[in-house]
Amino acid sequence: MFRNYIKIASRNLLKQKVYSFINIFGLAIAIAFCILIFLFVRDEVIHDSFHQKADRLYRVNILSKNEDGSMSPHAMTPPPLGPAFQEEFPEIVNMARFKKIGSVVNYQGQPSRESITLADPDFFKMFSFPLLRGDPQAVFEDRNSVVLREEVAKRYFGDEDPMGKVLSIKLGSRFFDFTVAGVARDIPQNSSITFDLLVSFDRIKDYTPERLLNQWTGFTTLTFVQLQRGTLATEVENKFPSFIQKHLGAVIKKYRGGDLSAYQFDLQPIRKIYLNTQVRSSYVAGSNPLYSTILAGIALLILIIAAINYMNLAIARSASRLREIGVRKVLGADRKKLMNQFFGESLFFSFISLCMGIALAELFLPAFNNFTSKKLAIGYFSDWTTLTSIVSLMFIVGLISGSYPALFLSGFRPVEVLRSHLKLGGKSKFSRGLVVVQFTLSIFLIISTLIMTHQLHYLKNRDLGIRGEQVVIIPTQGSPQGSQLVDRFRNELAAYNNVISLAGSNELLGNDRTYAESVVSYQEARIFAHYFFISFDFLKTIGLEIVEGRDFAREFTSDPKESVIVNEMLVRELGWDLAVGKQIKTFMGRKEPLTVVGVTKDFHFESLRTQIKPAIFYIEPRNQQEFIYVKIGPDDIPATLGLLEGTWKKNAPNFPFMYSFLDEEFHKLYRMEERWQRIIRNTSIFAILISCLGLFGLTALAIARRTKEIGIRKVLGASVAGLTRMVSMDFLKLVVFANFIAWPLAYYAMSRWLRGFAFRIDIKFGVFLLAAVLAAAIALLTVGLQAVKAAVANPVESLRYE
Amino acid sequence: MIKMKEITKFYSTGFVKTFVLRNINLNVEEGEFLTIMGPSGAGKSTLLHILGMLDSPSSGDYFFYDKPAHRLSERQLSDLHKNHIGFVFQSYHLIDDLTVYENLETPLLYKKVKGSERKGKIAEMLDRFNMVAKKKLFPNQLSGGQQQKVAVARAIIINPKLILADEPTGNLNTKEGTEVMDLLKELNESGTTIIQVTHSEKNASYGARIINLVDGWIVDK
Ligand SMILES: Nc1ncnc2c1ncn2[C@@H]1O[C@H](COP(=O)(O)OP(=O)(O)O)[C@@H](O)[C@H]1O
Ligand SMILES: [Mg+2]
Description:
Mean pLDDT of chain A: 85
Distance between the termini of chain A: 32 Å
Low-confidence stretches of chain B: none
Low-confidence stretches of chain A: none
CATH topology of chain B: Rossmann fold
Number of domains of chain A: 3
Strand content of chain A: 15-25%
Oligomer: heterodimer
Largest sheet of chain B: 6 strands, mixed
Bound molecules: adenosine-5'-diphosphate, magnesium ion
C-alpha cells in the first residue's frame, strides 16, 4: 500500500513540476530559516553550560534598595567579600574574584592595547577552561605569572614556545614584567566569561591602595563561588543576613540609616547570567532574551507563510484529487487510510524540503555566522537536540500542511465527489483567507523595513550641532605623557596646513555611557548638567557654534579658573534671558562661583534616543586630557593620519596609536538598530518571495481551471486586456484587502519602536502607500504574466483540450 | 440478497424538497441480472448509489444480506466495498496517476491480498481482457473502451458478489459496448449478481428483469 502512495506522490511531484517546486522550495527556504534561528536561539539558551561544574557555580550579586523600596541587582561586589565568604561559609569550596582592566602590553618594544583579566587562583579549578600548557593548580603560585589565551599567545609568539617568555604589562601607571606560565585553549563561543591575558588577582595591589582594597563600600569586582556538591544555593543565602550585619553593618548605619534590608546578596547560577538583562556588568557578555523571542517569532511567521503555500496548493489541486478520493472510497478505503495517505504524502514532501532546507542552511551558515558574530554549526550527531528538533520540525510542517486534504477532503462522501463537479481550487474562502494572511504579514514587514530605514537615515544625517566629519579622535590611554600630549601635538603640528585645529577633552563625544553629571545651582534653582573638561580651541575643533558671548581664550587668564560656557538647554532650564555674566555654582570641580562667558548652540553628545541635556564646559585645569581631537583638512587624509601617528610615536612610544573619526563614533551608536533593520529587511524579502511563490501557483491553477471559460469568453469577443484584468483582479483584491489589515498593525508596532527615540521621524502616510504599491506591483507581476499568457492563447486549443 | 422497503430520497434546496426517489420497494435475488431504465434525471444513478451504499436514503429501510445498511459503521461499509461490491461508472473513474497495472492492484491492496497472489490475479485479469501489453500505460493513454475494460476488470478483480454498473457503455462505440456487455453477461452466468443502468434496449436485453424509473417512481410497462 505504502508503495502505491509513494508512487502517486512522486508522480504528482514530477508531473506538476511548478507546484512541486513551489511547495518544496518555499518550504525548504522556511526550514533553512528555522534551522538557522534554532541554532541561534539554542546557542543563546545553553550559554555557559559547558563548564563541568556549571550546576554548582554561582555569581554573587548585590541587591540594593532604591528610594521607592524596590531592589536593584548589581553584579559588582566589594573586593573583601570573596575571601570573607570563603572563610565563613564552609559550603563554598572555591572562590574567584574577577576583574578586567584596559591596559598596554609591551613585547620587544612593540606596545599593544590589551584587556587584562585579574582572577583568584581558584579560577581554573572552578571553570572548565582547559590549559594547553601549564598546570591549572599552580599557574598563579608565582604572582609574576600570566596565562595567555591560545590565540593571543600565537599573536605574540607565533610558532615559538610561549612558556617562560616575558611580557611587560602596565598596571596603574607602571610596567611590570610577567612570565608566561600557561596557555589556555580558546574560549568556547558560548561563554559569558572571556579573557585574553590572565594574571593573579593579587596584582590589584600594584595599582590600588591597600585602604581601598579592604573597603566594603566600593563595588568593583565580580565574585564567583563554587558550592559543595549537593548544597542548595538557598542554604547559603539563608546565612547572608547575619553576614551582612557583621560586615556591612557599619556602612549601612552610615549611609543607609541602619536599614539592614538596604542590601541583600543573591547567588545567581552561572547558566542564568547570559540572558538576564537586569544584572549587567561590562565584564561579562550578555544578551537580551527578547532577541531570541523576536527571531523565533519571525522564523515561525516564515514557516507559517510557507505552510500556507502548501495548504493552498493542496486545496487548489484537491479538485483533481477529489476524484481519486472518491474512487478509493468506492474501492473500500476508509477515512483513516485516506488520512494516512495524505499525511504520508505531505510528510514525503516535507522530507524532501527538509533535505533541501538543510542544504540551504549549510550554504547560508557562514553568512549567518558573520551576521550574528557567532560560530554556529549544525551538530547532526554531536548533540541530540538539534537532530530531534529538525526531525520534529519536519513532522510539524508535514502534519500542518497536510491537514487540509487529510482532515477535510477525506471526509467527502464518494457520491458527492464522483458526480457533482465540486470546485474548491482558488475560489475557496479558506484559501483566499490564507493568501490574505500571507500578504498581511509581508506588507507589515515591508512597512516596518521602510520606516526603520527612514529612521536610521534620519539618525545618521540629523544635524548634531557639531561638525564631526574629519575630526580625528586619539585616546591618550592614561599614558603618563597624556597631560602634555595636547600641547606637544599642538606645537609640533602647528606648521601643517592639513591640521586645521587641535584640542583636548576628558570626554568621548558620541557615546551613551554616562557622562559626568553634576548639580548646578543658580540662586535658588538647582538642575542637573553634564560637564565637559576641555582645552582651548575645543569648541572650534568640533565646530560647535557660540550663540552668545565668547569661546574660552588664552588672553583671558582667568578663564581656566573662573569661567564656564553653557549650552542653550541649560539657559532655558534656568530661565535666563541673558546668560553672559551670570554666576553659578557647581559641586564637581570647583566650589567657588563660576561666571558664564558664553553660550553654545544645543548639540547632541549622546545618541538621538535621548533628549539634549544641559551641558557645562570648563577648562581642564591640569590639562589632563583623555582624548585629543584634531580637525584635519579634506585633502590626502591618509597622509595626515600618518603625520598624526608619527607625532604619537615620538611622544608616547610605549602606547599603541589608535584613532577614530567623530562622525563614526556617532554612527556606531546605532549598530543595534542597523542590525535589526537588516534582519527585518531580509525577512520581508523572504516573506514576499515565499508569498509570491504561492500566489504564482494559485494563479496557475486558477487559470488551468478556467481555461475553458477563458476560451469561450474569447470566442464571444472578450479582449485580451479584459481577460487579463478578470483573472488578475481576483487576486489583486486580496492584496488590497491585506493592506487594510497590515496598515494599523504596522502603524502600532512602528510607533512603539519609534518611541524609543527622543528624535524621530513622523510616520508618513506615503510609506503605507508605497508598501501597498510595492506589494501590489509584485503580486501583479506574479499573476499578470500568467494571466496575459492565458488570455492571448488560441481559444480553439483550450476548448479542444477540455 | 437485497431488500428495499419504501425508500425515498429528497434534496432540500432552499425551502423546497425535491424528491428524487419515491416509495421504492425492490427485492433482488442472488444471481440476478437486473436492468434499471428510465429517462435522464429519473433517479437511476441515485438508486444505484443507494444500492451500493455510497449514498444513504432519506427514509425507508434497506437490508443487504439481511443486515440493515443504515446501521453499518464506516468500517463495515468499507469492508463491504472492498470485499463484496464492484462498481463500474459511465466515466470510468480510474486513478489518473496510476498505471493500468497499479489501478488493478489498488483494490487488492485495500483487501490486503498477499504479493504473489496479487500478481497472479492481476496477470489473470490482464490476460482475460487482452491488456497485457498496456499494463504500464496510464489511463489517459488509453481509448474510452480500453479504460472501461480496465474499470470492469478493477471491479471484478476482488470477486464481488454484486456488480453495480452505471451506464457502462455510455461513452463507448458499439463494438466496445458489446465487448463490455458480453463480459457482464459472462460474469452473471458464473454467479455474480449484476445491476445495471442503461438507456439502450439492446443492453437491457442482456438482463432477465427490467424496472422502469420515471420521476422517482417505479412504473410498470
Ligand atoms: N446533490 C444534489 N442536490 C440536488 N439535486 C440533486 C443532487 N444530486 C442529484 N440531484 C437531482 O436528482 C435527480 C436525479 O439524478 P440522477 O439520479 O443522477 O438521475 P439519472 O441518473 O436517472 O439521470 C436529478 O434531477 C438531479 O438534478
Ligand atoms: Mg445517471
